[in-house]
Amino acid sequence: MPHVIVKLWPGKTEQQKARLADRIAGDVMDVLNYGEESVSVGFEEIKPQDWKDKVYKPDIQDQWEKLYKKPGYEM
Fold first, then answer.
1. Which of the residues 35, 48, 52, 61 has an alpha carbon 20 to 30 A from that of 7?
2. For 5-46, what is each residue's pLDDT tens digit?
3. pTM score, two decimals?
4. In DSSP terms, which residues pair with 49 in a beta bridge?
C-alpha cells in the first residue's frame, strides 16, 4: 500500500498537484504492480524559509543513503 508524500514550496495550483498525483500514482501502479485502490499521494507545502529544517536536514541530509534520487543542491 504505497503512500507517497510530495513536499514542495507553496504556489503550485490544484490542477498542477492533481496532474502530478495522477502521474506519480500511475508510475507506482505500473512499476510495482499495484491497483489504483492501493496507491495514495499527498502534498505537504513547506515555506522556503522552513525547507532546511523541515525537509532538507531530516529527509535528505539525514537519510542520504536511502535516497534513490538525490538532489543537485546543498544547504
1. 35
2. 999 999 999 999 999 999 999 999 999 999 999 999 999 999
3. 0.91
4. none
